[in-house]
Amino acid sequence: METRSAAVSGADIEAARLLLDRLGVSPEQVMRGAGPRRPMPTFDEYIGRVSHVVTDATRSVYETYWAKVRQVWGARRLDEPTPLEIHELAEWAKRQSVTRRNSRGGRASAEHVIAALRCLYRYAVMDGLIAEADSPAARVAKPRRLPSTRRAISATHLAQINAVAASTGNDPELDRLLLRLHTETACRRAGALGLRLCDIDSEQCLVRLREKGETVRWQPISPTLTRYLLLHNEERGTGDPSGQLLRYGNGKPITARRYDYLWQRLGKHLPWVAIQQISTHWLRHTTLTWVERNFGYAVARAYAGHSGKNDAGTTSTYVRADLYEVAAALAALTGEPHPLAVDSR
């Protein structure tokens, strides 16, 4: 009588895997004698659930890329795609990306597709739908980021930008206020768009900024900018202290489109603005570069609102600057006294 070989063929293993998948049971559960797994949701089902629990900022970044995933894989289960398929999806998104003024070949689209899937799979791991080691998105490397082309704008060019903004367009008063706000605070667009009347401390000349990563900080502003912001609210506000501060002349809140219009207009009058693809974020580089050169790295880091461990080395823990030093740097930048300024140099 022939005896069957103890060796198990690859076909046997694959057959067992398929059977377990059909039964909804994992090999670990077989070993533990556990019950069946929870049904594996599709991408359509799970993206809808995750999008309701993430922060508004996360949703605004990832919803476009989750829509791409649903377009291609909507009916597939979360545990079906392989790392290779995710890489192929990222490359497809890269090819499909819209060519913009500051486009860099679609690399950002590929990066965001992978990041959006990693976010999705993190929740799947927390829900116990898949093991952390089985997340296919975690095994796909993001495209390497190219060095930024942004840099500080010279004083002469900055003066030209402000002059054109104040003398052209359908609302030069608004654009002049926007440029001054970003130049003084080095805030991001989200910080300006999220500004409310209740975020202004007129006595101490401070604004409360809510920005990237749900960070909240008080940032010094000049007495002149404080007056301009309060006057802007008197003329265009709705009376709601928690409503958006920056508004058009008709009282409608501005959106990111105002920035697009502003820089497109500036590019028509100042060709170098269009050629170099200058944007609002260049103002942040300009201010922080000036602060670092004149007041040191610690003050520049505080001025920027950087506080996480990823923003600097361990040394920054011991050389942290405070609000009063930031106010002193602002006073030197604007040439106006600030109520919180101290000379720390």
TrEMBL record:
Origin superkingdom: Bacteria
Coiled-coil region(s): none
Gene Ontology terms, MF aspect: DNA binding
GO BP annotations listed: DNA integration; DNA recombination
Transmembrane segments: none
One Pfam assignment: Phage_integrase
Record key words, sorted: DNA recombination, DNA-binding
Every Tyr recombinase domain range: 148-331
CDD domains: DNA_BRE_C (cd00397)
Gene3D superfamilies linked: 1.10.150.130, Intergrase catalytic core (1.10.443.10)
Protein family according to the UniProt entry: Belongs to the 'phage' integrase family.
Protein name: Tyr recombinase domain-containing protein
